[in-house]
Specification:
Length: about 450
């Protein structure tokens, strides 16, 4: 009897490469029945045709076979990109190219990745694209997009937003400089064109837009946002969003140190109408500026949609490492609706030593009493806060334990969900996938 598959998977953002599509044992190629490139030039279609995603099943606590994702580029793709290296440089250093990728966002059945082709002699990005995998499309779909329109500086990572009942858009927030050197923010959007049945050819389809002519659509009139968003890397007081999500018909950009900006998803549709942005800043005592001497905000903060509310969570470790990790404080605030009159309301606050005293924690003696990291939540798990507890006592691969804490208003006392042990390789941030994101795969029985 196969072990029961968990309701969701936790994967890291770093996507390792499978060289020249030589698929190792225990890895499976992700099926993509539709492959298209938009705004990537005449070579774009050949590039997306030569890219493949690979998946590996659990068990999630095994150091060699934990769930993971990889990417592979064919020799044709690497040669195609390598040919673009300057002739003189190529004669001296060669034209060797390797690929690297990171998960940027996961929302519903859509994953957005950033793929870079790196010139091995230089060690820096030579060509960069976004790769969008839509698991909800028939037989899966893979789309290649340019990283950003020419003349733009990226402000916020791309994300999938639901802009209608049956369609979605990938959205970028960028900075653009006008002719008079005036700086202004803009949104760049892309939506997959609908497939239309081709007459007389069973099983074939045609696109309602030509791939070469369909890339980013720009909306530059962002009312209420231009004065807030930071204008350059050194503008530490400006709003610097690092995540995007949808909430009750709104598109929400979150700055983990300051709060949220939001607009109606309907305003993002193509047209000249301005996009009206509003904001809800965090309580003054919880606002913070980025500090190079401290871990990134995402290690101890998060903003997202939980049920019918927007949550902000912050983990506050003890001020000194010598103090007991049980003194770590977890605080949660909520917004019940998006309005400039609405304020963040305290929802729950507790110390980790309170969690350690719960029977649900004590009955699992292997759980470490460590400082939690990477708080996250899922909209469908109303009232549940998830945290990762690093395990400092297990050698070799990094391990963590996933702990779900029920903070719903209907529960007077804190309640724990059954914990899960995970192999957690080094990551910048975790991403949550539904267990059937890539389709059903039986968990590995023997190793």
């Amino acid at each position: 009897m196969a072990p029961q598959q968990p309701p969701f998977l936790v994967v890291g953002d770093i996507v390792a490469s499978i060289r020249h599509e030589v698929c190792p044992e225990d890895w499976v190629k992700v099926k993509c029945g539709r492959r298209e490139a938009y705004g990537c030039g005449e070579k774009g279609k050949r590039i997306v045709d030569g890219l493949n995603l690979y998946k590996r099943p659990g068990p999630e606590d095994h150091p060699d076979f934990y769930p993971s994702i990889r990417i592979g580029a064919s020799r044709d793709v690497l040669n195609l990109v390598g040919c673009e290296i300057d002739e003189v440089v190529g004669e001296i250093y060669g034209r060797d190219i390797k690929e690297s990728a990171h998960v940027i966002s996961v929302d519903g059945g859509v994953m957005v990745l950033r793929i870079s082709f790196v010139a091995e002699h230089k060690g820096s990005d030579f060509r960069t694209y976004y790769l969008v995998y839509d698991s909800t499309a028939p037989a899966g779909a893979l789309f290649l997009l340019p990283e950003k329109p020419p003349g733009c500086i990226l402000i916020c990572r791309s994300a999938r937003l639901k802009v209608g009942e049956d369609n979605f858009s990938v959205v970028l927030m960028v900075a653009r400089v006008a002719r008079d050197t005036t700086w202004y923010p803009a949104l760049c959007l892309w939506s997959p064109p609908a497939l239309l049945p081709a007459t007389g050819i069973k099983g074939k389809h045609r696109l309602d837009n030509e791939s070469e002519n369909c890339a980013w659509t720009e909306k530059a009139n962002l009312s209420g946002a231009d004065a807030m968003i930071r204008k350059d890397f050194y503008d530490i007081d400006g709003f610097a969003p690092s995540l995007v999500f949808s909430y009750k018909g709104y598109a929400v950009w979150g700055d983990l140190g300051k709060g949220i900006l939001y607009c109606r998803c309907g305003d993002l549709k193509v047209g000249r109408a301005p996009v009206d942005f509003k904001s809800n800043l965090l309580p003054p005592e919880r606002r913070a500026a980025f500090d190079f001497d401290k871990p990134p905000f995402r290690f101890y903060r998060n903003i997202g949609c939980v049920g019918d509310s927007v949550w902000f969570v912050i983990i506050e470790p003890p001020p000194e490492e010598e103090q007991c990790p049980g003194e770590t404080t977890v605080k949660v605030w909520t917004l019940d609706r998006l309005s400039e009159e609405e304020v963040w309301k305290p929802h729950r606050e507790f110390k980790m030593e309170t969690i350690w005293d719960l029977d649900g924690f004590k009955e699992h003696e292997w759980l470490p009493k460590s400082i939690p990291i990477f708080p996250f939540f899922r909209q469908q798990d109303n009232g549940i806060l998830y945290i990762l507890l690093p395990d400092p006592f297990r050698p070799g691969q990094q391990y963590a334990h996933l702990l779900g804490i029920d903070l719903s208003s209907s529960c007077e006392e804190l309640r724990l969900l059954p914990p899960r042990s995970l192999v957690v390789p080094w990551m910048n941030r975790p991403f949550v996938l539904d267990s059937g994101f890539f389709g059903p795969i039986p968990l590995r029985m023997t190793v």
